[in-house]
From TrEMBL:
It comes from Rhizobium redzepovicii. Residues 1-27 are annotated as: Disordered. This is EAL domain-containing protein. Residues 1-10 have a biased composition (Basic and acidic residues). Keywords: Coiled coil. PANTHER family: BIOFILM ARCHITECTURE MAINTENANCE PROTEIN MBAA, DIGUANYLATE CYCLASE DGCP. Residues 281-315 form a coiled coil. Residues 343-476 form the GGDEF domain. Signal peptide: none annotated. Residues 485-736 form the EAL domain. InterPro entries: Biofilm_reg_signaling (IPR052155), EAL_dom (IPR001633), EAL_sf (IPR035919), GGDEF_dom (IPR000160), Nucleotide_cyclase (IPR029787), PAC (IPR001610), PAS (IPR000014), PAS-assoc_C (IPR000700). Residues 110-163, 239-290 form the PAC domain. One of its GO terms (molecular function) is catalytic activity.
Amino acid sequence: MPVKKAHPEADDSTAAEAGVGSVADDDSDLAERESRWNHALVGSGLGVWDHNYRLDRKYYSQTWKTMRGMAPDEEAAGDYDAWLALVHPDDRDFVVHAIDRQNAGDPDFQIFEYRERHRDGHWMWIDCRGACVEWDESGVPTRIVGTDTDITARKEAEDTLSRLSRRLDLALEISRIGVFEADIENDTVEWDERLIAIYGLKGASRPIASDIWAKSLHPDDRERVLGLSDRSVESGSDFQQEYRIIRGDGAERVIRARSAFFVDGNGHRKLIGANWDVTEEVALRNELQRAKDQAEAHNRELEAAKESIERLALHDYLTSLPNRRYLDKMLDERSAECRAKGLGLAILHIDLDRFKQINDTLGHRAGDAMLQHAASVLRNSVRAADFVARIGGDEFVILCTVDPASKKIASLAERIIRELRKPVRYEGHDCRFGASIGIAVDSGPTLDAKQMLLDADIALYRAKGLGRNRFEFFSASDRRDVISAKHLADEILIGLERNEFVPFYQLQFDARTLDVVGVETLARWQHPVHGLLAPDRFLDIAEDLDVVSTIDALILERAIADRRAWIKDGLSVPKISVNVSARRLADPDLGKKLRALKIAPGTFAFELLESISLDDCDEAVAANLKKLRKLGIDIQIDDFGTGHASIVSLLRLSPKTLKIDRELIRLLPQSAEQRKLVGSIIDIGRSLNILVIAEGVETSDHIRILEELDCDTLQGYALARPMPAMQIPSFIRAGSWRHGQVAARALQTQLRRELRSRSAK
């Protein structure tokens, strides 16, 4: 190590020193000792330096030069300033001060460390050890001898260890881990500061008493934890546990502990371990567990709710039977099962008869009770493997897998009908209803349960049409009829769009004079393929489609237009009657629609079927009848004598006209009883100031007899057939109904009346 020159005026004549020790004495023993020490120094890796200020000579050993990257035989200049420039800038001031103090003989600076740049450019750490070995008369150091050691590797190791130590301390601090070491044999324990802080024992004496830990344990955990600890010590197994403590400040905390045994260099058995304060973690874990438990409970509730919703979605709330949605699912499953096993599938479509009357008379609660009773009967009538569903209203469906050749389905249907016909007691009333059943049975690889359900519905329709309280099996002809009806229904709807429904008119005549007194408007369908169709060809299907009211409205509008055309042509028809359906009569907007047509009062009459004019008309019908009278539209009762209208209903409805049904007129010439009955009806009408029209007048005998019975008006083929509006004027002007036998009989009748009148005078 180059150093400052202590005495520039030092004596140059002093013998040079080479190595450690004096070279003046060339005694062989001394030389041997010097050689031995030199070899020892070289082997030790120490770089020797010797600064003799008195002789102004500086010596640097080969090791000293080699550690700095110099060649062993390279001359070291020993220039202080040049050497100082190689010292690390952060160490430079310290080194200058340290050399000054070392030269001054300060024992505190005999050893110091600093960084110096190696010849290849990297920094190396030097451990510098030097001391004064000679002084002048004034006590000033004249010779400094020392060694330099390259401690770079050691410093790097220390730095690495320091970094690791800092990391460990930081990790322990961040994780709030306290560490302890226990000497099992001596029963002593060393706790670090963090562990003392964790247990709230700040200020406690060191080392910690061995029983402090046991006393800190929570009373509820102490026995368990100490037992585990003792067993761990006995077996030498690792200890890992979580427990509660009561801190020195009284706070309750949760500790997680881990420890392991080892044997130290002295052969002592020791235990080292770590404790974590996991109170917040445990609280969070417990909270998460509570949240998980709550979530699982909520999930169970949701699952139960889902099952309940699914059950509600698949079952009828009233009867608890499967519903239509469930049925659709089972149709697919049973179809696949029957196809796979070669079984037959039977579908029974059940509709309760007279159920509406129970609802209407006893209320919906009674109806609900009957539906529940019907569901119970169906469940008790089938096998456990059969499927029963309520698909809406008073309709039920049963699915049965059967042997294709089995005839037990008919027996099942008979049993169901028999059980459902039995009276059911409800709040003091005997409720009676029945059931109609349509049955479809099929098997084989092409089995289609959904099509079978349609077939069963067709069979049910047929059972109802044949009188109800019975069952019918589906047949291919039934399907053809349904397809035909469907085709006709489509054609009706198209016909309405194309205005194919037109009015025909049948004239009505005074029974005494045969003068035209009115005309009945009849609906006809001008079919593009089948020609002119009467209502018997389309009325039932139109009612199913709920378009009869639409047809009635169209015919009325056409009749109003035709009347205007006749008037324009100079022909006046006293009154035009049109049919009105029950649904149209119940239309709350009927009055508004009729006012919009601006019908002249007294020119039109609405014909009501006798089945409409019941004793108990609902409020809507009664209100519309009152509106008709205000609009000047007369009311006629059609087909009187074939329904169940009472005298009371006639008095209440006060119709302008009664029309005797053609069935009562047809047998007048052959039956005295029929003549008596028709005469009674005419007498009733007259007594109530109601005009009477006879329909179905087809012969001259009919004309004669009805005239004798004092009937008011005649209508029938004997006088005029139904005809389109354009033929009415020419027909009336021609007067053809007055010609021939008809006219003669009319004349005879008139003469007889005149003779009777003269005799009476």
